[in-house]
Amino acid sequence: MQEKEHKGEKPVVKREMSRRQFLSYTLGGAGAFMAAGMTVPMIRFAVDPIIRPKSGSDYVKVIEESKVTTTPTEVKFKKHQVDGWYESDPEFAAWIAKDDSGKIYALSPICKHLGCTVAWNTDSRFPNEFFCPCHEAHYDKDGKQKAVASAPLDEYEVKLEGGWVYLGPVIPNSRVK
């Protein structure tokens, strides 16, 4: 038998993995696996509030319909609130009254000037008005600003159901033209 030699061809060399390469690949893979194991829960934690479905109604039962008069009455209520990962039940307030036609409305007690809390009929200089003690802003019964503040008081969405008044989210005042 005759062996043919081919010029310019190199013999095929079988490459074997060295110990150093084996350890490098093994440790690199194990490190990547551990990094992914730590990163995935952090990403899930950050994204969870975004992908979690919203629950429940935005309306809160606050007062019996029969107890609402034409004079604004302050009612306090708690509303469950989820802010990212923090859940709380802070207390809110509203001024609820009936207008001349008997329609129930609720105003936010937050002054539009600097965010202080207004109260009904507390200053003798401004009878039958909402008054803010911080900078003497005052509003009429419908929440229309009379001095200092640049906008009327906000109002709550109101829903009447089963003899009860339910308050929803705060919206811009629709009573003042």
TrEMBL record:
Residue span(s) of domain Rieske: 96-167
Give the residue spans that cross the bilayer: 22-43
Coiled-coil zones = none
State the signal peptide span: none
Q: Which CDD domains match?
A: Rieske (cd03467)
Pfam family for this entry, one: Rieske
Q: Mind telling me which Gene3D superfamilies this protein's record contains?
A: Rieske [2Fe-2S] iron-sulphur domain, Single helix bin
- What keywords appear on the UniProt entry? 2Fe-2S, Disulfide bond, Iron, Iron-sulfur, Membrane, Metal-binding, Transmembrane, Transmembrane helix
Which domain of life does the protein's organism represent?
A: Bacteria
Instruction: Provide the protein name.
Output: Ubiquinol-cytochrome c reductase iron-sulfur subunit
What is the scientific name of the source organism?
Paenibacillus thermoaerophilus
